[in-house]
Amino acid sequence: MNFQLTEERQMLQDGLRRYLADAVTPEALKADEAEGVAPELWSGLSEMGVAGALFTEEQGGFGGHGFDLMTVFEELGRAGAPAPLVELLLAGGLIAETGSETQLALVEQAVEGAVQLAFAHGEPASRFDIDRIETRAERSGEGWTLSGRKSVVVNGAQADHIVVSARTSGAPGEREGISLFVLPKGTEGVEIRDYPLSQGGHAAEIVFDGATLPEDALLGAEGQAHEAIETAQARATAALCADALGAMETARALTGDYLKTRKQFGQPIGKFQALQHRAADMLIEIEQARSAVINLCGHLEADRDTREIHVSATKHLVGKVARLVAEEAIQMHGGIGMTEEYDLGRFARRLSMLDQRFGDATYHLGRFVRLRAA
Amino acid sequence: MDLNFTEEQKAFRAEVRSFLDEKLPKRLSDKVRLGQRLTKQDYEEWHAILNEKGWLAGNWAKEYGGAGWNAVERHIFEEETTAASAPRIVPFGLAMLGPVLQKFGSEEQQQYWLPRILNGDDWWCQGYSEPGAGSDLASVKTTAERDGDHYVVNGQKTWTTLGQHANMIFCLVRTSKEGKPQEGISFLLIDMDDPGITVRPIVLIDGEPEVNEVFFDNVRVPATNLVGEENKGWTYAKYLLTHERTNIAGVGFANAGLSNLKRIARLEQSGGRPLIEDPLFAAQIAEVEIALMAMATTNLRVVSAAAAGQAPGAESSMLKVKGTVIRQEINALTKVAVGPYAMPFVSEALEAGSNEGPVGPDYAMAATPHYLNNRKLSIYGGSNEVQKTIIAKAILEL
């Protein structure tokens, strides 16, 4: 047993924490809200080589393991950094796992920060089910024709390349028959509606209206993408939960400071035992969340069933704690916690939206029951 | 014990329902149902429709132009209007200031201000909280110093809801520093157009400029705008807060929210089936519904007692805590129910008739803004922590 970070990860954590403390400026947040990118922050992170921590050495990175993800994403969450690294992890991970030589070059470029990526998978009716895919790709001549709609594709309009899932056979709800394709930005027959998200960043609705793709747009084996998607989503879930953990730590720190300084009835409100106990509950639950994230990150490379049990256990628990922390932090602040100009708001929103991606706490509770029963 | 409404009450409910069928503009109920923004004109339009019927001020006595309803009738009206997705009645003039003027105002004040509230000549806002006086309201610092026929007001108010629409503000101001903090507070009516007043909007975490800061810099207020006696404002403020709390349970809002949640859970698909058939999610809806059924009866118990002439006391604190927690749970479940489409934040889509439509289904667009915005329910009107302290002291005698 050893719960210490390795020296390398410790250095990464320290460096990232120092850098982000200054780099997440009001300007960066404004740029992200308007355009879905904070250019300076993105190039700063690229210069630090942060993306490399998301990939193994064979993939062109220097990390790629669960605790590398935890280290990076906890710091991004702590700073509330607007940077689409979960998308890089998802789309880049899919390319790294299944890509051809030519396609692998994209991962290299992404690690350098030269291109941005997105993964277009969810659809209006799919909610959180990986296999409920209706978008279809059909062979046509030398290539493929793509038709369907993808919803809430995070970083969709900003990405230089998009990985898209589509059915090449089978029906919605079946594991078999899902394929992946890589499209460059500006592909004809692709319509994109870009919009901001509550938690920061942008997403897009993407409609494929008979978009024509070349033969070599296919990523990995035809019809066999389910396993790769599930694996990539497990890693992205770990990243998102670590991000939430960091955001919770900040929410707790802000609340602690406020309890010590805000005076009502002639004393700091932190002197009231009712609030002391609630702040203590917050701390206890955040430590539970930290352990859950460690559990998942430590089992990302385990066999599929073990890994997925941890995916659902962690997403359930962290989802619940994120809600508690966001709501209690606002409540203990009172009115000031409801305002946009106070820093807590954007962290509360980030935490509130955790449940809306990759499955909410209730969804994963049910999934955990089914996985355990299997 | 009899859980049934009387025949008269049933007839009254039918009358309210047919009135709403006939008079509530669909344009307004559509906005409310979809959670779109209501403009100042929208509220004024609805107020005018109600005023024409004599139903705008349900809690005012008939002699002042009110409907003179008792608590049960007001409750029925509230249930029917929320079920029909009517805009809420803006409470500051009608539910808050009106009763204070009727109880403590001079005859001149009553004759001048009350009709203006009914006719929509004035839009009032509430000047209670200050940066240093939130839960601890008695520590207000905004001062009013007497200077001949005027008071000169200096200081700052905050969390002034819809102050951007208001032309009048009723304020708690400090007129004396002697004695206990509660003893030096007065209740003053101030014209927002007076020189020296600055209003600054505060944007909340749902992106809406719903509340404001109001600054007073040597604002000269006619002494005739003092309500009741100098330094007795705390009594009036408490009276007002009791009135603010009569409908604080928000049963009507909770019922409307629950129906909306169930509708969404029937439309959303999870695992190839309607979300409402997911036993775990359905159980959460059921839990909040069961709590709401009981709370609605607690509310009726308090309402009946009030209709029989008992002033609501610490019971209203119970209703406030339970009512707000239930509504917040419904908001949280609704946000979860809409799934990924709770993430898009397209502010323009909340504007009726905007070119920018919602990203997903129309029922999804307001889920997150409402969830975030209604965190205020457990903070305003005396935070739930303050309510629990009141319960501990007044009922439990701890």
Helix content of chain A: 40-55%
Q: Classify the beta-strand content of chain A into a percent band.
A: 15-25%
Structural class of the secondary elements of chain A? Answer: alpha+beta
Class derived from helix and strand content of chain B:
alpha+beta
Q: Helix and strand string of chain A, N-terminal first?
A: HHHHHHEEEEEEEEHEEHHHH
Briefly note the CATH topology name of the largest domain in chain B.
Butyryl-CoA Dehydrogenase, subunit A, domain 3
Oligomeric category: heterodimer
> How many distinct domains of chain A?
3
- Calculate Rg of chain A over CA atoms: 21 Å
**Greatest chain-chain interface?**
A-B, 50 and 51 residues
**What percent of residues of chain B adopt helix (DSSP H or I)?**
40-55%
Q: Could you give the order of strands across the largest sheet of chain A?
A: 1-4-5-8
Q: Report the major sheet of chain A.
A: 4 strands, mixed
Q: What is the overall shape of chain A?
A: globular
Radius of gyration of chain B: 22 Å
For the record, the CATH class of the largest domain in chain B is Mainly Alpha
Give an account of the 3D structure:
The complex is a heterodimer of chains A (374) and B (398). With 374 residues, chain A is α+β, with helices and mostly antiparallel strands. Chain A has three domains: 7-83, Orthogonal Bundle (Butyryl-Coa Dehydrogenase, subunit A, domain 1), CATH 1.10.540; 118-223, Butyryl-CoA Dehydrogenase, subunit A, domain 2, CATH 2.40.110.10; 227-373, Butyryl-CoA Dehydrogenase, subunit A, domain 3 (Up-down Bundle), CATH 1.20.140.10. In chain A, 51% of the residues lie in helices and 16% in strands. In chain A, helix 5 (85-98) packs antiparallel against helix 7 and helix 9 (304-333) packs antiparallel against helix 11. The longest helix of chain A has 36 residues, at 226-261. The model of chain A has no long low-confidence stretch (mean pLDDT 97). Chain B has three domains: 7-89, Butyryl-Coa Dehydrogenase, subunit A, domain 1, CATH 1.10.540.10; 122-233, Beta Barrel (Butyryl-CoA Dehydrogenase, subunit A, domain 2); 248-394, Butyryl-CoA Dehydrogenase, subunit A, domain 3 (Up-down Bundle). Chain B has twelve helices and ten strands. Chain B has helices spanning 7-23, 26-34, 40-53, 71-83, 91-104, 107-119, 233-246, 251-267, 279-307, 315-337, 367-373, 384-394, and strands at 124-127, 143-147, 150-157, 168-174, 185-191, 197-202, 211-222, 226-227, 269-270, 273-274. In chain B, the strands form three sheets. A four-stranded mixed sheet of chain B has the order 1-4-5-8. The radius of gyration of chain B is 22 Å and the shape is globular. The model of chain B has no long low-confidence stretch (mean pLDDT 94). The chains are: A alpha+beta (374), B alpha+beta (398).
